[in-house]
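USER: Study each token:
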Amino acid sequence: MRTGIFKFPAKAKTRLYLVACAGAATATGVSFHAFNPNSPSLSYDSFLRSSIFPEKILTVSHGVIRSSRAIYTIACTVVDYKYSLYGLPIDSYEYLQKLSEVHSRSAKRIQNLCEANKGFYVKAGQFVVSLRQVPKEYSSTLSSLQDQPIAAASIAQVHRGTLKDQQEVAIKVQYPGLENQMKLDTSIMSFLSKCIEWFFPEYRFEWLVSEFVETISLELDFIQEAKNSERTAKNFKSNDMVWVPYIFWELTTRQVLTMEFCRGCKVDDVEFLKEMGINPIKVARALVEVYAEMIFIHGFVHGDPHPGNILVSPEGRYGFSLVLLDHGIYKQLDEGFRLDYCELWKALILLDSKKIQQLGECFGVGKYARYFPLIFTGRTIDSKSPLGRGMSSDEKRNLKQELRSLQMEDISSFMESLPPEFLIILRTDGLLRSILRKLGASQRVRLLAYAKCALYGLSLRSNPQSDFPVKAALSRLKTNISYLHLRLVLEVLDLLSWMKKIRRLLYTLTERMSVIFAATSSSILKGA
């Protein structure tokens, strides 16, 4: 594909709108136009309509087609669920088998809907798949929506350009008319969620639509995205592992974002990493430490860490660096929430069930707090398994029986009761876990990084951003000692678990040897 290079002064005297015009459906070429909105002869919208966007963008007929397609898809899905599962006992094997089949068919319909309607529907599909609470049939099918090429983004296109001083830049150009399209699309989504709730009262998704609307609204303001980018760069200014592209403010508007062009491969491209001599496990560890710092320490969280938004550059002090892109979706955590979340992770690591239940009351989830360990660490609240080692067969069997008693009503109630900060954390954590699996890192890497940053995050409560070097050093020392103590506890628990397994193995071997010895002795006596 040919790329058109547009050159313009590094210090523009007038504010310019950069508008990218892709070629026809094949997108064989790209050219750039400079437009001065102060020109009295032509408005910006008129320029778009008359010059380079002659086709209809958001006409009534277009909206009707998209809406009709969405309504038809959801109607078919509702009918499929209603009649495929009709009359089947909920706790029967046949019901579970049929449910999985309906999930698969419905996920495929929704995938086709997202790909046909594009835009915010693709974003909605990406948003859903990032939540680990959806059925696996949906997450596996809709995961293809995460892999959209750079020139076919859902709300904007990114093009490569060069300034007059030869500085390479990436220019992100928003499609026109998106705000009106967003209002229409999200209204339809809200209407459909209410329809589903009418047919299936236990399936309540209004919380999901509301969170999606809030999230996608953030992405439409490129000025705010640029500010988020600079704030993140400031937060990690002392971290040589992180690089955030420089923003060219004189060439940035609400619809056009111009930033430094950065090279690198997608963070989950394991084959390329190995070719470059970069250890994927080290990348995984660096990645999770960066996001743990965002969540537990800064309280300013990048809410869309899918692989396309994180590059690995072969340059850097440690042989590579992480390039963070797309800073549209961020969440500023309430300070009280941040501290409670740090406490939750400390309790999760130590499996302090009493503290977990107590924090569940703070978060407003009540009895559902018992599922926090399962959601975040893969253990039950009563688990005796070592951290990051999974559950025993008995624990899995007991959990399966417990989960069978849960209804969709319970899941809806749980998600509705969560603080809004929790939803973006669940989304971010889900995307991170997916990347770590692709990089071959164990869950323990993530858990230990979270534990360390949670402890440091708690230390900020008593020493908020101290300007005194000695006090700050003592705070770090205290945190490191606490972390080492925690690691020691975990290693001892691992050792005890290992010794228990060895003891069980030796007991089994002894039993078998006794049986063999008895049988051999009996044969010898009979022969005698």
Observations:
- The longest helix spans residues 469-527.
- The two ends are 89 Å apart (CA to CA).
- The chain has two domains: 14-219, 264-504.
- DSSP finds 18 helices and twelve strands in the chain.
